[in-house]
Design brief:
By secondary structure, the chain is α+β, with helices and mostly antiparallel strands. Helices cover 37% and strands 22% of the residues. The longest helix has 49 residues, at 2-50.
C-alpha cells in the first residue's frame, strides 16, 4: 500500500512537474514576445510626443504590421487591414454587392461595358454602352472607376438611383442592389442571360470551357457544363479547357476538378515547413469517360490552375498548349486577427508538389518552374498578341441584344476564323490538335519540334532583357534631364519632343535601316511594334537636320 501511495505521489509530481514546466515555457515564450514589442512601444511613444509631423496611431500600427510581413520575404504573405477586407473577400470568393456590371470610364463618365448575367443592371434595363452620368445626384464626370464603384456598392435590397445617357437622351433608372456572383465558368458563346454555349464543334462533339478563377463551387459549375455537352454519358469526343489568365484560388476546387478526370492516383501533395504532409488522391467515383483533353495555359496561369493541369499531365490525361505558367507553388491560409476585427493575415504556410514530386515554385534562382506545355505544343504569344486576344474575347463577352446572345454561331468550329476574328492562335491550335487526335488517333503538334523547356526559358530571357532595356532607356532619359537642369537648360523643347514621325504613320511590320558613320548599311531590321518611336525618343534620338 505504501509503495502504491509512493508511486502515485511520484506520478502526481511528474504530472505537476510537466505542467509547471509547460506553463513556465509558455510564460517564457510570452515574455519573449512582450520584450520583442518593447522597442516598438518606445518608438511609438517618441513619435507621438516628439515628432514634428506625427502620424495617426492606425497608420503607425499598419506600417509596423506590414513591415513585419515584408520581412518574411514572401510576396504572397500579406496583411489586409479592416478597411480593405471587403475588397479582399470579394476577390477571394468572387462575390460582392452592387448592380452587376463591367464598367470603365469613357469621355470622362462611368460607362457600362456590359451588364453581367442575371444582374440587377440587366433587370433594370441597363445596356452595354450606357453612360452613368449621375449616381444618387452626384456626377460621375472626372471620377475614377473605383470612386464610382464605391458609390454603386451597398447593401442587398437597397436601391441606387442613377441618371443614364443613351443615344443622346438622359433618363433616370432605379437599380436594386443585390449580391453578385461573378461568372467563373464560361463557354465559347453567350446564348442568352446566364446561358453559355460550351460546344465548340457540334459535328465532332468538341467542347470548350473557360474557367476564369477557382472560386468556391466552381468545380460543381464545371461538372454542370460538362453534363450539358454529354461528357458524363459518352457524348463528348474532346475538350479544350482554358485556364489562361486564371490566377488560381481555392485549392480544394482544383483537387475536386482533377478528380473528375482521374480515377486513381495522387492529385497533389502539400508540405509544411516541419515536413508534415497531406496527400490528395483521386477516386473512381464520378470519373468522366476518357476523351482527349487540351488545357490552355499562359504565363498568367497560376496556383490552382497549375495544380489541376499538372495533375492531369503527370497522369497522361491531358496535353498542355500555350506557354509556361507562373510558377506559384505555395499555399496560403487566411487567418483572422482576433484583436483587430475585420483584419486578416494571408500567410504562406505550405508548398505543394505535383504527382511526379515536382515543385513548380518559382524563385529568383529558378531555371525551371511552373507547368510547361507538352512537347510540340509550345505556342507563345507576344504581349501585343495577348492584348488582341483579350480585346476580341471581351467583345464577344458583351451582352448587346435583347436575348443576351453574342451570335458567334458555327464559325467557331473553323480554326481559320478563330485566328482571324478572335485573334487566338492558341485556341485555333488546340482545335486543330484535338480534331487530328479524334480523326487519326495522333496529336497534331502546332508548336513544332523546338524543345519546350529551352523555348520557354528563351522567351522569359527575352522578356527580362526587354524589361531591363526599357528601364535603362528611362534611366538614360532621367540622366539627360538631370544634366539639363544642372546646366540651366530650358527643358521645354525636350518636353514637347514627342514625335519623330506623324502620328498616323503605321510602322509595325516596316523596316529600320541602320547605317554606320560612313553611311554604310550595317543592319536592316523588321519593326515589331508601334513602341519603336517611344524607345527612340527615350534613348535621345532626334530627327536628322
Amino acid at each position: 500500500m505504501k509503495r502504491s501511495k509512493l508511486v502515485l505521489q511520484v506520478a502526481l509530481l511528474g504530472i505537476l512537474g510537466v505542467a509547471v514546466l509547460g506553463s513556465t515555457l509558455r510564460i517564457a515564450q510570452m515574455g519573449d514576445d512582450y520584450r520583442f514589442f518593447d522597442p516598438l512601444v518606445e518608438v511609438k511613444h517618441l513619435l507621438d510626443t516628439r515628432a514634428y509631423r506625427p502620424a495617426e496611431a492606425q497608420e503607425l500600427q499598419n506600417a509596423a504590421i506590414m513591415g513585419m510581413v515584408e520581412a518574411v520575404g514572401d510576396d504572397y504573405t500579406i496583411y489586409v487591414p479592416p478597411a480593405e477586407s471587403t475588397d479582399f473577400e470579394k476577390q477571394l470568393i468572387g462575390e460582392y454587392v452592387g448592380i452587376g456590371a463591367a464598367v470603365n470610364v469613357e469621355d470622362g463618365y462611368l460607362t457600362i461595358v456590359t451588364p453581367l448575367d442575371g444582374s440587377p443592371a440587366i433587370r433594370a434595363g441597363i445596356h452595354a454602352g450606357d453612360k452613368i452620368v449621375e449616381i444618387e445626384g452626384e456626377s460621375t464626370l472626372g471620377k475614377t472607376v473605383d470612386d464610382n464603384i464605391e458609390l454603386l456598392m451597398g447593401e442587398p435590397g437597397v436601391p441606387v438611383n442613377v441618371l443614364v445617357e443613351r443615344d443622346g437622351e438622359r433618363f433616370p433608372v432605379t437599380i436594386v442592389r443585390d449580391r453578385i456572383n461573378t461568372v467563373q465558368v464560361k463557354g465559347i458563346e453567350r446564348r442568352g442571360e446566364n446561358d453559355w454555349r460550351f460546344m465548340l464543334d457540334e459535328e465532332r462533339k468538341i467542347a470548350y470551357i473557360w474557367l476564369t478563377q477557382f472560386t468556391p463551387g466552381c468545380a460543381a459549375e464545371v461538372r454542370d457544363a460538362l453534363r450539358q455537352v454529354g461528357a458524363d454519358t459518352g457524348g463528348l469526343n474532346g475538350l479544350i479547357f482554358d485556364l489562361r489568365w486564371n490566377p488560381g484560388g481555392v485549392l480544394t476546387e482544383a483537387v475536386e476538378l482533377a478528380d473528375m478526370f482521374l480515377d486513381e492516383g495522387v492529385v497533389v501533395t502539400t508540405r509544411g515547413r516541419d515536413g508534415d504532409e497531406d496527400v490528395d488522391r483521386a477516386t473512381s467515383a464520378g470519373t468522366l469517360p476518357d476523351f482527349p483533353v487540351v488545357i490552355l495555359l499562359n504565363r498568367f496561369s497560376a496556383s490552382a490552375s497549375e495544380v489541376f493541369s499538372g495533375a492531369l499531365v503527370d497522369h497522361d490525361r491531358a496535353v498542355v498548349l500555350g506557354e509556361r505558367s507562373v510558377g506559384k507553388g505555395s499555399v496560403q491560409s487566411v487567418i483572422p486577427i482576433p484583436s483587430d476585427p475585420g483584419a486578416v493575415l494571408k500567410i504562406t504556410d505550405r508548398n505543394y508538389y505535383l504527382p511526379s514530386g515536382k515543385s513548380i515554385q518559382r524563385t529568383d534562382e529558378s531555371a525551371v518552374w511552373g507547368v510547361d506545355p507538352t512537347e510540340g505544343f509550345y505556342v507563345p504569344l507576344t504581349l501585343e498578341e495577348t492584348r488582341e486576344v483579350v480585346r476580341a474575347r471581351q467583345e464577344e463577352d458583351i451582352i448587346r441584344d435583347d436575348d443576351g446572345s453574342t451570335h458567334v454561331g458555327s464559325r467557331v468550329s473553323d480554326p481559320e476564323w478563330i485566328e482571324t476574328e478572335l485573334r487566338d492562335v492558341q485556341l485555333a491550335g488546340a482545335l486543330r490538335a484535338i480534331v487530328a487526335k479524334i480523326e487519326t488517333g495522333e496529336w497534331l503538334r502546332p508548336g513544332g519540334e523546338q524543345p519546350v523547356a529551352r523555348a520557354a526559358a528563351s522567351a522569359e530571357l527575352k522578356r527580362l532583357v526587354d524589361g531591363r532595356e526599357q528601364l535603362l532607356l528611362e534611366l538614360e532619359r532621367m540622366q539627360r534631364r538631370i544634366g539639363a537642369i544642372e546646366d540651366g537648360t530650358d527643358m521645354a523643347a525636350e518636353d514637347v519632343q514627342n514625335d519623330l514621325w506623324p502620328d498616323e504613320t503605321v510602322v509595325t511590320g516596316g523596316t529600320l535601316e541602320v547605317r554606320d558613320a560612313e553611311g554604310n548599311v550595317i543592319a536592316d531590321l523588321t519593326i515589331p511594334s508601334e513602341s519603336l518611336e517611344r524607345w527612340l525618343i527615350g534613348a535621345g534620338f532626334e530627327p536628322k537636320p
